[in-house]
Input
Amino acid sequence: MSDNTISPQDASLLLHRFVAERIPVLSLFMSADESVIAKVTGFITSFTRDLGMVISLESAALTPNTRLPAHIRFSDQRITDSTFQYADETELPKDYEYSSGLRVNMKDGSTLVIFEIRAKAP
Output
């Protein structure tokens, strides 16, 4: 991940794109003291003030009438109080399974990294 700091507005646009376009992502969360580590491959299903940011194994839009099986939820305040870094596809190897990435550096020292999963060639 590069040191390319981006504005909260740009990070918000990227997160909203993940939600609106139902882009598959790999998310990695590590608490500041490393006592909690979570990896979820799925979708960002929400990024709102009320619900905060929700990352789930499935997208309700893709699997209607089902409950989201496993998910991680971050309050809106926790995300908006963070700083952000961005890496685009040009910084990653061509054969890497993931493309652009967003690193969310939370005030308490916890980190969330979200990578867009590249579409597999047919």
Q: What stands out?
A: Residues 5-117 form one domain. The mean pLDDT is 83. Strands lie at 5-6, 25-30, 37-48, 52-56, 71-74, 83-87, 98-105, 111-117. The radius of gyration is 14 Å.
